[in-house]
Amino acid sequence: MPKDFKQVADDVMNGVGLIRAGAPDAMKAFGALSSAATAAHALDTKTKELMALAIGIAVHCDGCVAYHTKMAHGHGATREEVAETVALALYMGGGPAAVYGADALRAYDQFENDQS
Known about the structure:
mainly alpha
């Protein structure tokens, strides 16, 4: 059965809400780190989301792949840019990254088709 990457990305956000309810100070600090790390400075936000996607693929994180593909897509990343990000992750993460890289392309296709 194919993964529903939109649901996986939503599950990530729901999980953040659960942690925020149980540990609000920690999540406030994590949110500030997230905002600072992804803010456009020398690198634009789209590029940073693609970098986060590559790391998510390399460390084999389903939620990271779904969430950062969604965010990269939302910041204007093309399928070609996601494919090149997957190629870099393969280089850094080896064979297991291929499984998660393919998921990133499937996720991109789901987010792209959702706009239709």
